[in-house]
Queue: 4 jobs
Job 1
Amino acid sequence: MTSTPDTVRRITYGTAPDQVADLRLPTGVQGLAPVAIVVHGGFWRAHRTLEMVAPLAEDLTARGWATWNLEYGRVGGRGGWPTTLTDVAAGVDALAEVAAEEPLDLDRVVAIGHSAGGHLALWTAARPHLPDGAPGARPTVVPAAVVSLAGVADLRAAADDSLGEGAAVEFLGGTPDEVGDRYDVASPAEHLPLGVPQLLAHGDADQHVPLRHARAHRDAARAAGDDVTLLEFSGADHFPVIEPDSAVWQDIVAQFPEV
């Protein structure tokens, strides 16, 4: 594991160029800092990078969080099934090594993701439920809570609705009928209850991931016994949920789960 000295430390968790995460540490925090794993979206495709959510990570660090802005292999590059999942799992678990050198409280970890990153954040909480041998099984670090920002929770529903012009099918290499076992592993909806509090934030004008997807996850997760809160924002599209200067983000961060 290597890093470059700066306010933002870019740390590698593997040998591929996109197996990196940006670590930001808060100032003025006594003892160990809570950790926010930040996962960008982009429908699992390579055109989006961790820079998309860097302002959000900066805002959280200013609020006293250590942030771990995670990059991973994406469709169009190294990613897709199963690499995207194994990268995210490895990147999350790498926090255990980082915490050996930095003041991080791994009992107070929140996974925060936007869009497809919301899927990946929810999936990190599902990893303890995965069967041995599945991508991401036997986690070292598990979040105590998840914040899904305009997130995708049910990959079968995402495939059925052709979100992102077939992004879920592209990500998993086939439809639910063709590669159902992959959906069983990768979709958080298949692993309810996740067993951790979940905060969902979604705009009712979102055309990328319609609000009904968040409502369906809230209902299914609550029925399974999970503690889930859904914040709905009138007139908001897909992006105010990750804009630190927006009133939407201020409302979201004020209601983060306690960890």
Note: DSSP finds nine helices and eight strands in the chain.
Job 2
Amino acid sequence: MKIVAVVMALCLAALAPAEDRILRVEAVVHAPAKDLWAAFQTGEGIQKLWGVAKAEVDFKPGGSIRTTYDANIDVKSDAAIVNDIVTFEPERVLVLKSHAPANAPDFIKAICETGWTVLRLEPLTPTSTRVIVTGMGYKDGPVYDQAYEFFREGNGFTLEKMKKGFDAPEREKTAAAIADRFRSMVGDWEFAQPRPDGGTFRGKTTFRSLFDGRVYFAAGFLGDDKKMLQHSHFTAAVDPRSGEWIVWNFDQDGSYTVAPISISGDTMTLDWNTWNSEGVLVPYQVKYIFQPDGAFDTHVLASPNPDGTRNTIAKVHYVRSKDAGTPLPPQK
């Protein structure tokens, strides 16, 4: 067994080009990993991802992605850039082996001969992904120095194109609108409504602001006329990794929720991705529907049905508690 282990170690050492340099460039793209992965599988998607003029994709191990930055070049010709698909892990890793166009400079041909590229998709939130492009096979010498600098700049340029291609044009406006809605919710809230058994379903929520509105937290309580127990602890803030508002929530059962936020008119929607106490993901949805008088309705929706619709778990109408004071105005 020791002999086998030594032989394996020697073989692995021989395969590992320790002297080669690694070029790693990364960026956060405001899109789910599944959307980016889907884009890699079509010509239109590659145009959006890489900012090329034309693209043709045969997405499978052994297939290829053929591109050109010049709309006058045929992607089937030897003047196109060809990236063979070596292997992949869906929605996470794509390994490519590049082939230089026929008229490419020597430094491009050199790195295409010895190198390969690994693209990794690292989900940061349900709506944002860190994209990491790692180039390998850069050997010593001026030719490889030139190739390294060319692709360091070029891969950075490509990631900027990717960010712009997927970034929602209203993202900053949306973030400001979400902040205003949270600010309007600061205070103490309650609801009471009849249950089918004749009792009363009651809830209370305290909603507070921290650090001049950079963080909001809430403690929610549910119960009846006799007893109220804490149901959840809710924190909302801008995730520094993605720059987007997001909610983190824990409930009385130990469930953990990560919820990206969207807003349309008077409705703020939280995609309530909950990992329950058994570690199973349950994709609920919570909607806050704001009323003209300052109150708001909360709708809790179940996981999607096969046709995409959702059944309603609960609907409640929150009003400001008598001792809560007046709401804070939106920030300007």
Note: The chain has two domains: 17-167, 172-320.
Job 3
Amino acid sequence: MLTGEILLLVFVFVIAGFLGVELISKVPSQLHTPLMSGTNAISGITIVGAVSATAAALHTDGTLSAIFGFAAIVLAAINVIGGYLVTDRMLGMFKKKDKGDKK
């Protein structure tokens, strides 16, 4: 990979990080649950990207790339599943309890 391409990728990564922090810090606390649900759906795209990157690595016989791709698939799946569990738990706090329910 050329040095210019690596610098461009690092630049995009740093700008995305700053933009993410700036956007999240401006969100009111009441909107965090809907925002989390939306980001979990978007995180599913990460799994698709990780699967395609891993498939490309397996076709080019890149063992290290395949290992990193598999790790990316596992971590993205944990992110999506954990995000949905947290969202479900947070939304459960707003459900009305039955009168006969002693919990």
Note: DSSP finds three helices and no strands in the chain.
Job 4
Amino acid sequence: MKTYLAKVGEIERQYVLFDASEASVGRLAVKIANALRGKDKPTYTPHIDTGDFVVVINAENAVLTGNKGTEKEYESYSGYRGGRKIVTADVVRAKHPERIIKEAVWGMLPKGRLGRAMYRKLKVYPGMEHPHAAQKPVKVSL
């Protein structure tokens, strides 16, 4: 037997649809990260991007368990003195609900060129509507 290593030209990608309504953010992010990396396929190769495109809908209805709404903080730094901003998860959910899922998934992907290529295949939308209906995404149940 030989170990199979996927080649870049052999990869067949499809669109996968996740519905984030009433789903825990962490458990959802694990499934999304695995689909982006391709770990749910038998052709998974660690150094090649073998994952699918992922579309997430209803991001505004994703659940943060416990006191994470008020206690979880998202930090950004502009590079200037005094340019550190800290915002709670409730404020982020009110303004940009898709960022909560994007931040959770980004933390689970590899850092570097390969991880950035995987992250670009993630599309998150706050409501039910998405512009990827023509690609006929396969709905994944959680």
Note: The mean pLDDT is 95.
